[in-house]
Amino acid sequence: MGRVNASGGAAFHERLKASSDVASGPVDDGARPPSRPAPEGASAMGGTAEPLLVMEHVSKAFGAVRALVDVSLELYAGETHGLVGENGAGKSTLVKVLAGVHPPDAGALRIGGREVFISSPAAARDAGIAVIYQEPTLFPDLTVAENIFMSRQPLRSGRRIDSRVMNRRVLELVEPLGVRLDPQRIARGLSIADQQIVEIAKALSLDARVIIMDEPTAALSAYEVQRLFRVVETLRASGAAVLFISHRLEEVFGVCQRVTVMRDGQRVLSSLLQGLTSDDLVRAMVGRDVVEREQRVGAQRGDVVLEVDRLTREGVFVDVSFQVRSGEIVALAGLVGAGRSEVARAVFGIDRYDAGEVRVGGKKLKRGAPVAAMEAGVGLVPEDRRLQGLIMELSIGGNIALPSLARLQRFGLVRRSAEHRYAEEWATRLSLRYGRFSNRVSTLSGGNQQKCVLAKWLSRRPRLLIIDEPTRGIDVATKSEVHRLLVELAEQGVAVLMISSELPEVLRVADRVLVMREGRLVAEFSHDDASEEAIVAAATGQADKVAS
Amino acid sequence: MSAVMGAVGELNEDTSPRRIADLIFRVRELGIVAVLVVFVAVTALIQPRFVDSQNIKFIFTDAVIFALLAMGETMVVLTRQVDLSVGSVLGLSAYLSSNLFSQVHGIPIVAVFLVGLVIGLACGAVNGAITAIARVPGLVVTLATLYIFRAIDVLVVGGGLVIASTLPSGFLGIPTASWSELSSVPYLTVVVAILVGVVAYCLRSFRAGRELYAIGSNPDAATLAGIPKGKRIFTAYLLCGGIAGLAGVLWAANYQTIDSTAGLNYELTVIAAVVVGGVNIFGGSGTVVGAAFGALLLTTINQALYVLGISSFWDPAIDGLLIVVAISLDHGISVRLTNALRKRNLQHET
Fold first, then answer.
1. Chain B residue closest to A172 (CA)?
2. In this structure, are residues A330 and A510 in contact, taking their beta carbons and an 8 Å threshold?
């Protein structure tokens, strides 16, 4: 308890100011700020003092999905602690538990030696925990100062807001961070980096001692990342505990002193970063058994079906070129946010693109016209079947027949019986388990809903099937059914472009693996060269070190 | 120390985006005034009678009730809600309050105003309570109460009618009383102008006022900031209702003949004034001063059409056109503003 807790409130601010000379000094153009040994936390990290925040055996499940399993974590004052893991490893859930968004099912939380229960975002705030999200939620119409001090504005006589004091206090908060921010400008139009600074200033104004940054750098430019690193370093040096979540391992090595690796909802590694290599982290992140591959009978490659040529959408993806042949399954791998789904949406014509070309069967596709793509024989099974793939209020038969209504109509009318006949064939082929075709599609299980989306597109006999996260949230048995189905389709000559964040799935079914990182295609692996380590390394930007 | 100096230096540089923002927002309200001035000038050129003191007085008298309602509505709209029941509340209050003069002999005028206020507050409380507690969108709630309050009005009034002869002359004189016969600005206009100013100041300078803006600007962020959303929205509806109640009493004094159709369909006109006055219909920005000017502008236009001999058939069309112009303008401004501010950011970085 003692020393850590005693330094709250004003004292914390004093130290923040004292450390400002370091942070607002000349800009360090190097790739990373020097990670000096933590002045305050140095002894703490040795284990002699108590950590500022302790998570003990915390578990959290959503239905059958166990998002966090017996996770323990210690954060010390004066350290920046990296948290890494693959997509779905449980990082976000951990953040939400600490932020009070999801109360844990089991386990305890202690701050400064005292047990706390964080049941709401307000409780987290009162406990001194602040979360800086990737995209903060601000009041766009209000000023920066109001955003920071909303409902806590300094008052003058008659309980009126004292804007002058409020604006000055913003400057006092922001100045030690070495960042420029006008307290009186409205928040609309602030860059994401500046929005994060507003959130950090708010955290400081609340005397937050634990500052969690959930992938703060994902949407920042290189310059902004450097600025954020300096801010993080200032916070750390002033005695805060920073939990820094990032997919980019080089950033973790750049700002953190310790690191925790999560995999499948569990903590697999917690240690000082010193002495670790990025290979070690990648291995810890992956660390699964090798998956068996789907047996392919005749992997006959036919003609090129899809040609994507230098496709660019400003700020989203750049210069993406690849081909998919008939009978081939090509996987687009990469981290969430790397631009994979966006490429798929652009190919199908949902989103526009700024440059480049998409050809299907040699013919150029019109931009931004899904109907043209459908006529050319392209089907898209989107990532979120509930929002994008199905109309939940509509019947099962109606959903399956929906993209084919033009074929089923007679004199502009579609008969229910024709719809059902049409749906039946594919429901049988995909062994869809349903009650009646007229039941709402929302009554089906996740796996059967996914089969519905598949039936909807397969019934159009596409030449090219784009499928985004084909098995997200469906049970293991249906998963392998879907995998087998994809392989069957390929054997029948359909070209399949699959986007998947699950590496075992990618390795199981894909003939070729393309890896995207930050909007670019960065690597390509053949079926035989692909390995989890190589893909993760390419996706996190460690390719030069791991892959050859 | 040098770091502090540096920061201050940078700050001066940094104020320019705010200046752009400030200017545009000021221009937004100046814009309405400019349109108003141009409109009055053009009309006066064609028909000088338009600017004689009698006609101006008429416009002010009419606009005052309208501006009051727009002010109340603005408080609700700022929170990303809407009050569709103001016309019905006005009608109910107008009849029930003015009818008291014939029911209770010698009742003081102040008491009648109090009754109108209480009726309005009660209606506002119903709207606010359902919206805030049951978390039903205010649009739906007040769509229902629009009909319910009107139905109550019709039930109470029946075939009844309040006519001028039952009302004391002191009451009838309230909307038009002024310093002298020749003055074109009635007392009431000044009182309402001051009231609008005071409310504008409160919305700007008190936490609760800023919280109305915050709720409308980003409801999720408002929850995270610990703002008592329900309480604030309730208060906004309560005040809007109370103001509509007062406006009802003034309506009775001004129009002098009250049946169950008083204020019928008035709610949309009020919302039109609010939008024309630069209040974002999705909340978060705008001022009651702007809304009051919006009301004045719409009244002026209607009166100008009358003076110019153009059929009042065109009134709704012109109101509609103004709404489209106002909304397009707002959208254009906000897009440009965002771009201007973004460009600033980029310049800072490079």
1. B4
2. yes
Residue at A487 is within a domain: yes
Q: Domain tally for chain A?
A: 3
A161 touches chain B (CB under 8 A): yes
Longest dimension (CA), chain B: 81
Which 52-111 residues of chain A touch chain B by CB within 8 A?
none
Per-residue pLDDT of chain A (548 residues; tens, 9 = 90+): 333 333 334 444 554 544 444 333 333 333 333 444 444 444 444 445 789 999 999 999 877 678 899 999 999 999 999 999 877 788 888 999 999 888 899 999 999 889 999 988 888 988 999 999 877 889 999 999 999 999 999 999 999 999 999 999 999 999 888 888 899 988 988 888 899 999 999 999 998 999 999 988 877 777 888 899 999 999 999 999 999 998 788 889 999 999 999 988 899 999 999 989 888 888 888 775 445 555 555 556 788 999 999 999 888 899 999 999 998 999 999 887 788 889 999 999 888 888 899 999 888 988 888 889 988 999 998 887 777 888 888 888 888 888 888 788 888 888 888 888 888 888 888 888 787 888 888 888 777 888 888 888 888 889 999 999 888 767 666 777 888 888 888 888 899 999 988 888 888 888 899 999 888 999 999 888 888 888 888 888 876 544 43
Residue A451 shares a structural domain with residue A313: no
Domain shared by A403 and A294, yes or no: no
Residues A468, A354 within the same domain: yes
Q: Is residue A431 situated within a structural domain?
A: yes
Residues on chain B touching A188 (C-beta within 8 angstroms): 334, 337-338, 341
Say which residue the tokens 């406990």 belong to: A127
Instruction: Please answer whether residues B277 and B299 qualify as being in contact, where contact means their C-beta atoms are separated by less than 8 angstroms.
Output: no
- Strand boundaries in B139-298, DSSP class E: none
- A308 and A257, same domain (yes or no): no
d(C-alpha A391, C-alpha A388), whole Å: 8
Q: Does A140 touch chain B (CB under 8 A)?
A: yes
DSSP H or E segment with residue B295: helix B288-307
Q: Measured between alpha carbons, how far is B246 from A31 in angstroms, rounded to an integer?
A: 66
CATH number for A100:
3.40.50.300
In whole angstroms, give the CA distance from residue A304 to residue B189.
77
The C-alpha of A164 sits at a distance from chain B's nearest C-alpha, in angstroms, of 12
Cβ–Cβ < 8 Å for A377, A361: yes
CA distances from residue B135 to A502, B33, B210, B229 in whole angstroms, order as listed: 40, 38, 21, 10
Q: Say whether A139 and B3 touch across the interface (CB within 8 A).
A: no
Encoded tokens for A479: 């998963």
Q: What are phi and psi of B244, to 5 degrees?
A: -65, -35
Rounded Cα distance, B314 and A493, in Å: 66
Task: State the amino acid at position B179 in one-letter form.
Answer: W
Residue A393 burial by Cβ neighbours in a 10 Å radius (0-12, 13-18, 19+): exposed
Question: Whole-angstrom Cα distance, residue B295 to residue B279?
Answer: 12
| Bridge partner residues of A271 (DSSP) | A259
Which residues in chain B touch residue A17, judged by CB atoms under 8 angstroms apart?
none
> In 3-state terms, what secondary structure has residue B183?
coil
Q: Which of B79, B207, B342 to mutate to test the interface with A (most CBs of A within 10 A)?
A: B207
CB-CB neighbors (< 8 A) of B7 in chain A: 24, 171, 175, 180
CB count within 10 Å of CB B253 equals: 28
Tell me the ipTM for this assembly: 0.86
**pTM for the model:** 0.74
* Structural domain span for residue A45: 2-134+211-286
Helix runs in B166-205, H state only: 169-172, 187-205
Q: State the alpha helices, DSSP H only, in A131-174.
A: 144-149, 163-174
Closest CA to A127 of A261, A225, A8, A215: A8
The first and second tokens of residue B220, run together, are 């999720």
